[in-house]
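Researcher: Please predict.
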Amino acid sequence: MSELRRAAERVLLGNWTGRSTVPSHSLYPHHWSWDSAFIAIGLRHLSPRRAQVELESLFGAQWQDGRIPHISFSPSVPRDAYFPGPDFWQATTRGGVESSGIVQPPVHALAVWLTHQADEAESIRRGFLARMYPKLVAWHTYLRERRDLGGRGLVAVVHPWESGMDNSPAWDEALARVEPAPLHSFTRRDTDHASDDDRPTDLDYGRYVQLAATYRDHGYDDARTPFTFALEDPCFNALLIASEHALASIAEALSLDPSRHVTAAAELTSALTTLFHDGIFRPRDLRAGQPRAEDEQTTAGEQAAGRLVEVDTVAGLVPLIVPELPQAKELLATARGPKFRLGEVRMVPSYDLTGPAFEPGRYWRGPSWFNTAWLLHRGLVQRGEHQAEELADALRADVLELAGSTGFAEYVEPFTGEARGARDFSWTAALALDLLRPSRP
């Protein structure tokens, strides 16, 4: 364990740029949103102050409308080192930071609260919570007011990248409605650093580019953009609930009224239950069954009925982190069942092992990821039941063994544990460092 700890620390120190941590110097050389939150959760054990700086740096790219962009571009990295880069997004924050225009799952308030707890005296001395709280409130306000595209109180993602689970089979049907950008109109950089077999296909990438270009060409205006892709994702909303609970704790620590966050968490939890079906949470496709022609598409100002996507992924298990979730017992049974085989395969597969689109090595279409394993571990521990704690202990051991044996791989095959994607991956090292601690969430 001490050797694993030192190795994890070397990864985080090696990927530190002075104000933030890159996920991977080769594949992801900029500052990613939800990566940064997971990284801070591990960094707090190495240096609470550095974890605070990590999060402060990320929020330095916050837009005026409150959104946190999924990428903040580093001016020291060549502009064409990553695609889509700053020249594609054409977005500059009020602080002069070039960024993307889409978002990622809101795990940030939870990361801020855990970072504060790592060294409360240092956090208070630096005014960390007092400075972060209004920024977090603005971020959540943007999501709840601008992204409730279905009118049910749930946040919708408008690009697969916003879910963090880019090429999940859950998005296949919705993506099929998108006319892809011509392959000759862009140059991928991800396949320069990773096997084609591990990455999304060129067809999917063309669709990602088209969705992003449409949003960009409408000024990233959620009210005006004709969204072809708009889904209520259970993972995204579960993390927002967890972060609203964290905001309530932050408010109390600042001697502020936490009731608005308690109420928001309760409202979101109630709305989230509408995504539960057949023992798991599923995304709702708000555009399902609607016309494809752009002039007939639903915008943010219109409510969309939509329907649940009958595809089961790890995103549907992440709501285990929601406190007092009514469906937790059924969800745990699904996790242990044939679709995910929790406790039998390596960590937690990203997609139904019995599903027709399962691919054990391709990005989010089957492999097991360290961040989702960490989230499920947290949810299992919060259950406070003997069986759940036994599963949590086994999952923790598996994460730590795989982190060390794969050189902190980005993700692994669920049956063999074979490393896939990047190595020396920051959130893998950070979350291993967190799980090495004896404390419970």
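Model: The chain has 15 helices and 13 strands.
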